[in-house]
Amino acid sequence: MAADNKDTMIVPVLPLRGLVVFPKALIHFDVGRQKSITAINKAMKRDQMIFLSTQIDATNNDPKLIDVYTTGVIAKIVQVLKQPENVTRIVIEGKFRAKIVAPVHDPSGLMAEVQPIPEPIMDHDDFDTALMRAVKKEFEEYIDISPQIPSDIIFKVALCKRAGELADYIAANMALDYQVKQEILEIRSPVERLKDVLDVLINENYILRLEDEINRKARMRIDESQRDFFLREQKRVIEEELGEDDNPSEDAEEYAERIEELKLDEKSADVLLKECRKLMKMPFGSQEASVIRTYLDTVLDLPWNKSTKDKIVIPKLRKELDRTHYGLEKIKTRIIEQLAVKKLSDKQKGQVICFVGPPGVGKTSIAKSIAKAIGRNSQRIALGGVRDEAEIRGHRRTYIGSIPGRIISAVQSAGSNNPVLILDEVDKLASDYKGDPTSALLEVLDIEQNNKFVDHYIDIPFDLSNVMFITTANDLGAIPAPLRDRMEIIEINSYTREEKFHIAKKHLIPKQLDLCGFTAAEVKFTKKGIYYLIDFYTRESGVRTLERTIASILRKCAVKKLEDGVETFKIDEKEIETLLGNKKYLPDTVSKKDEIGIVNGLAWTSVGGELLPIEVAIMDGTGKLELTGSLGDVMKESAKIAINCIRSHADVLGIDSEFYKNKDIHIHAPEGAVPKDGPSAGITMATAIYSVLSSKAVRHDVAMTGEITLRGKVLPIGGLKEKSMAAYKHGITTVIIPKLNEPDIEEFDDAVKENINFIPVESLKDVLSIAVIDPIKVSEREWNKTRLPSPSANAPVARMTQ
Ligand code: ADP
Asked: Which of 498, 543, 545 has most ligand 1 atoms within 8 Å of CB, for mutation?
């Protein structure tokens, strides 16, 4: 029967499950239901035409006519193929749309009267053309991203000229829900249908792109975890091969055992065991696991229960210290006392001792010797420039790369919990915004609370109470006061020439000979040679440069021995010049002449005492005062006081009392590069001023130190020991000191006491009578009748703070 599009036709109905067939589609599918096979047979017996309509519910196994969509497609069965198991495969070609208008009774299968739906024939306008282009473009993208559609379809789409045909073709070839396809099938207007297709396409493409993105990400995640897994496996195999088995849970167990063995207090053990539990949960090779491991290794490595046994045999100790160090009696005696008490009673905790003295006098090395002599390990901690509290107490573990502080690190390196820790240069501690290292150090040195010292990194208390702390410093005044209060200070002096000679002969030379592989018979230093080295190749308070110079001589001898086969050496003045070149320093001499306006002062610096000559010149002028030579504020004030003191005593001293109006005074302290400060040059400046004003010379063999007041009183000063040593080195025979400093003389070095006449004074009058040649005689009564200068234009004006 020819399809006449307007007339209805009676055709067998084949219900389709989940499939919508469009006109012009050529497809094949399998049919298994008996009713469907009957319908096919009927069609084949007639004109091969069959009505294909989609079931509303795809799961219905026995659909009636009311169970299918009324709109479907009349198709021609092109081929029927019998398949195994009662399945028939048919190839059909969709012809045109049609809709059921009435059911036709047929007990053997579904039959219906259907009416064809003609496809409107219309010319396409620009909008339609644009729509078609848009659809084609969108479809191209669809093909691109949806993998299951064969790409040759695109060519057919390109050839489609009609909107309806294009809509049908695309809908037929898209992987869509059958309901969506049915909707498209039911739209009669070709343009409307195509619009619908475009919407569907856009939506599908969006979803496909999203799906693609999701897939890509999921794949990446899988790839990454596979990669991680693969690398970790590889690492494990490599480490196994190298014998570096890395297994967090096994390690954690091992750590836990070690923690138990340490028998720490419960709280500390808990902290560590918690870390073990964390480690146990860590994945293989994780970064965090290695942080925990480093922490546990560090903590477990600390000498919690390891200590050395003290060998305190007092007579032996004394001998041992004498063997390694010359002199230093005070230190030796004090240490021996402390250790003797310790030996008798364990109750008394030793005081922290601080050795104060110029560089190179053996502070650090005797501390090391003490440790060795009593069989303790020792470690040196340099504190110079430490400005961060964390350097003492460690960084918290939350910081990347954190480590324990210097104290705990030193204990760890010492390997025992009772080492001697030498805290070098406590006077050079600095503090800034990162916290004050002094307060951390106070805690370390506090014998009452250092048994529970908590380093930020270690995070559990460590007992430092058995550690013997020895600190060193150059400048007592620069040690932070709270720290100074906690320590017992033992001062060490500069060495005299003679002491240096003995130290060199008994200690430095044998030590260096040994280090260079010489015997004492091979290299002999003459007495004069040693003094020659001290006088002309070194200028220091200690013996560090002297030791270095001796080492340098021996190195040169070693070369000569190997190069020229020289067997023995006699190190005298001549040999020293050959080996080391010309003298480096000229002897410390003072002027051999008594001069007007030049007076020997004495100064103290952190590297020892110094002779500080003060020069004064007076010129006609208007009363100006000039001070040169890097003088600090206190010293400048002291100069003004000295001038006014002389002014107030001008009459009794027999000098022009108007000098401050018609003369300019210039005070100079040579060696301008070295900053000088403090009040102790007061009497020196006053003496020099008096000397120029009276034109009387000052004794060249006299040195002096003392603060001066306006009334000419002499006040006590510090650092006298080092100053006296400097005077001694320069061959001074008389040193004027403040009366109140007289008790200090007892502490002076014997050689100094023997060679210098110390004269304690109370007033400038006495100073002048000792130091000035041919002094004017002034009685006590006259001197005390001082006339303080009346205010003048030049007099200093006290400035009030605003
Ligand atoms: P400081 O710590 O006071 O700066 P050091 O302890 O570093 O000085 O001493 C420098 C060198 O001088 C060391 O080799 C030390 O052995 C030696 N030395 C210093 N004083 C003496 C002494 N009294 N006896 C023996 N050697 C000494």
From this structure: 543
User: Considering the domain boundaries, does residue 47 fall inside one?
Assistant: yes
Residue 799 lies inside a defined structural domain of this protein:
no
Clarify whether residues 110 and 134 are in a common domain: no
511 Cβ closer than 6 Å to some ligand 1 atom: no
Please indicate, yes or no, if residue 227 is contained in any of the structural domains: no
CATH number (domain holding residue 58): 2.30.130.40
Give the per-residue pLDDT at 431.
61
- Quick one: 429 and 342 in the same domain? yes
Would residue 365 show up in a list of annotated catalytic residues for this protein? no
Domain that holds residue 23: 9-116
> Long-range contacts made by residues 315-321, C-beta under 8 angstroms, separation at least 24?
316/373, 317/373, 317/374, 320/369, 320/372, 320/373, 321/366, 321/369, 321/370, 321/373
Cβ-Cβ contacts under 8 Å for 149 (sequence gap 6 or more): 142, 143, 173, 174, 175
Task: Say if residue 196 is in the same domain as residue 91.
Answer: no
- 281 and 397 inside one domain: no
Residues in the chain: 802
Residue minimizing CA distance to atom 24 of ligand 1: 325
pLDDT digits (tens, 9 = 90+) for 327-374: 888 888 888 888 888 777 766 666 788 998 888 888 999 999 888 888
- Within this chain, do residues 156 and 197 fall inside the same structural domain, yes or no? yes
- CA 367 / ligand 1 centre spacing (Å): 10
For ligand 1, whether the C-beta of 376 sits within 6 Å is no
Which of 483, 458, 463, 482 is closest to 472 using CA atoms?
483
Extract the residue ranges of the chain whose pLDDT is less than 70: 1-6, 147, 151, 225, 232, 235-236, 239-249, 283-286, 346-350, 431-435, 587-591, 671-676, 786-802
Q: Atom 5, ligand 1: which residue's CA is nearest?
A: 362
Nearest CA residue ID for atom 27, ligand 1: 362
Q: Is residue 240 part of a domain?
A: no
Q: What CATH number should be reported for the domain holding residue 459? A: 3.40.50.300
The one-letter code for the residue type at 766 is D
- CB of 542 within 6 A of ligand 1: the answer is yes
Candidates 723, 729, 763, 765; catalytic one: 723
Share in percent of the chain as helix, strand, coil (round to 5): 45, 20, 35
- pLDDT tens for 3-14 read 444 588 999 999
- Could you confirm whether 723 is annotated as catalytic? yes
Whether ligand 1 lies within 6 angstroms of the CB of 540 is answered as: no
Å from CA of 747 to ligand 1 middle? 21
Whether 440 and 509 map to the same domain: the answer is no
Task: Please say whether the beta carbons of 726 and 608 come within 8 A.
Answer: yes
Domain with 622 in it: what CATH number? 3.30.230.10
Establish whether residue 629 lines the binding site of ligand 1, counting it when its CB lies within 6 angstroms of any ligand atom. no
Do 509 and 558 lie in one domain? The reply is: yes
Ligand 1 and 605: CB distance under 6 A: no
Residue 471, classed as helix, strand or coil, is strand
Q: Which of 440, 470, 491 lies at the terminal end of a domain, its last residue?
A: 491
Phi, psi torsion values for 631, nearest 5 degrees: -90, 140
Task: Evaluate the CA torsion angle 99, 104, 107, 108 in order and state its sign.
Answer: negative
Given the residues 369, 606, 638, 680, the one annotated as active site:
680
Residue 608 Cβ inside 6 Å of ligand 1? The answer reads no
Residues 285 and 161 in one domain: no
Domain boundary among 423, 456, 491: 491
Domain count, the chain: 6
The ligand 1 atom at the shortest distance from the C-alpha of residue 327 is 23
CA distance 736 to 749: 17
